[in-house]
Amino acid sequence: MKKPQAKFLFVSMITALLCSCSQNDSVETDSKAESQKFEIINVTHHDGKPFSTGSKSSLTGKYVDNPGGGVMMQAFYWDVPSGGTWWNTVSSKVTAWGNAGIGSIWLPPASKAQNGAFSMGYDPTDYFDFGDYNQNGSTETRFGSKTELVNLITAAHAENIKVYADIVINHNSGGQSEANPFTGTNTWTNFNGISSGKFKRTYANFYKNSFGNNDEGSFGGFPDLCHADPYVKDWLWIRADGVGKYYKNTMKFDGWRFDYVKGFGAWVVNAWNANVGGFSVGELWDSNVNILNDWANNANSSVFDFACYYKMNDAFDGNNLALLNDDMMWKRNPYKAVTFVTNHDTDEIWSKMLAYSYILTHEGYPTIFYRDYEEWLDKNKLNNLIWIHNNKATGTTSILYSDNDEYVARRNGYNGNPGLVVYINNSDVWQERWIQTNWANTQIKDFTGNSTWYPTTQADKWVKIQCPPKGYSIWSINQ
Question: Could you tell me which Pfam families the record lists for this protein (predicted)?
């Protein structure tokens, strides 16, 4: 009696196992079919070239732009330590930043401002005082001396890092009071006593004046520079010893971050770029993509992608990753979009690592904030994302899937580089999803190390990948 019973149990076990396998296959098929229902969104349509800052090589001749383009470091934050130490602080870090793959640094306004040693530089008085004249209560700026700034720029260039100057040309501060016939009052517009003696100004060079009552915008009640005035144009971007060309040719800055560009016409930046050259990006604080794109085209400049910033904030912190399907500057014009997660003015995004995984795998020119990198977040994880950006984030972009919790996008590769697939998971549990790659019968891996899977894509290029809770995984060919 025992042998027939054992045979029956064995047959039952085999039958159950086969049924189980059949059910699992059905689940896998259903899961793939479910993913196939999502209509892939081909976001960008161009030849796949990466963002370019305009220069392919450094002064040392060693550097060629990475396959994925560059990464910028905002090398300051609001109210960095005073005492003239900041230029030396940044100098001490450029070697490590260069080794991590940072291609450029953006410095705060470098010239003497109204509050002297205590100013962050956004209230400029003398554009040619870099901490070498005793005025406004100090010789050095908040950040240090001219010699220390020159040493910093030299050190950065030795590491193949470009250096961008924050340039404030909308308004000035720190002038003396004078009678102003255009206003009928006294105004703080007399800059004839500046110590450098270069680019002296009076009421005639500020609105309201003989050129009009105002331009596009004023800031904080400061005297508003009149760019329509030929004298102002000449000193800012035309003459060989003027502000722009002195910064570029003597101080050796490689480009510009233009402050508060809502305050003056886009033609100003266009004229600066045409006469001075160098990379440029404008701070146009607006979430409207049309406004950003129009300004960038008219200014012939890059622009910070505030549309992307606010969409990331809503998507990651509002728990709706489908919002990442919406329009952003990098989608509209990837070669003129500078993306960011935080800057010295705004710090709203809570899920920062998810946001960095987004901008460092997508198109545009990603910026890393100093405090995020050096103090607040995991530097090893950011370095990993920088490496992935530089080496894998190539080509046009396609969105493969999105819902409240999950977002999957594909960079389609360029010039022999295979690109990548990024999977972002905003839920509290591991997620798995079938997605379509550009690779058939190819083993892939997660270059973040967050997943230990080494799946092989099917003949139809589909594959199942996974992503950790409140995390991301980034997949490419295992080579």
Answer: Alpha-amy_C_pro, Alpha-amylase
Find the radius of gyration of the CA atoms of the chain. Answer: 27
Provide mean pLDDT across the span 248-262.
98
Structural contact between residues 170 and 161, judged by C-beta atoms closer than 8 angstroms: no
Identify the helix (H) or strand (E) that includes residue 43.
none
Q: How many CB atoms lie within 10 A of CB 319?
A: 13
Residue 193 pLDDT grade (very low, low, confident, very high; cuts 50, 70, 90): very high
From 123, 148, 259, 363, the catalytic residue: 259
148 carries an active-site annotation: no
Q: What is the pLDDT of residue 54?
A: 83
Phi first, then psi, for residue 470 (nearest 5°) are 45, 40
pTM of the model: 0.92
Distance CA 349, CA 341 (A): 7
What confidence score (pLDDT) does residue 33 get?
86
Partners of 471 in the beta sheet? Answer: 425
Contact 227, 215 (CB under 8 A): yes
Decide if pLDDT at 378 tops 80: yes
**254 catalytically annotated:** no
- Candidate list 178, 283, 326, 347, residue with the active-site label: 283
Query: Is the predicted pLDDT of residue 160 greater than 90, yes or no?
Result: yes
Query: Binding site residues for Ca(2+), as ranges?
Result: 170, 229, 405
Per-residue confidence (pLDDT) for residue 333, from 0 to 100: 96
d(CA 255, CA 189) in angstroms, rounded, equals 28
Classified by CATH at the fold level, domain 63-304 comes out as: TIM Barrel (3.20.20)
C-alpha 446/C-alpha 423 separation (Å) is: 10
Annotated binding-site residues read 170, 229, 405
Exposed e or buried b per residue across 24-57, where buried means at least 16 C-beta atoms within 10 angstroms of its C-beta: eeeeeeeebeebeebeeeebbeeebebbebebee
Q: How far is CA 66 from the centre of its chain?
A: 16
- Whether 325 and 41 have beta carbons less than 8 Å apart is answered as yes
Q: What is the mean pLDDT of residues 72-91?
A: 98
Domain ranges for the chain, please list them.
63-304
Handedness of CA 227, 127, 115, 78 (dihedral sign): positive
Question: How many C-beta atoms lie closer than 10 Å to residue 14's C-beta?
Answer: 10
pLDDT tens sequence across 264-304:
999 999 999 999 999 999 999 999 999 999 999 999 999 99
Sheet holding 444-446, edge to edge: 41-42, 397-402, 406-411, 420-425, 471-477, 444-446
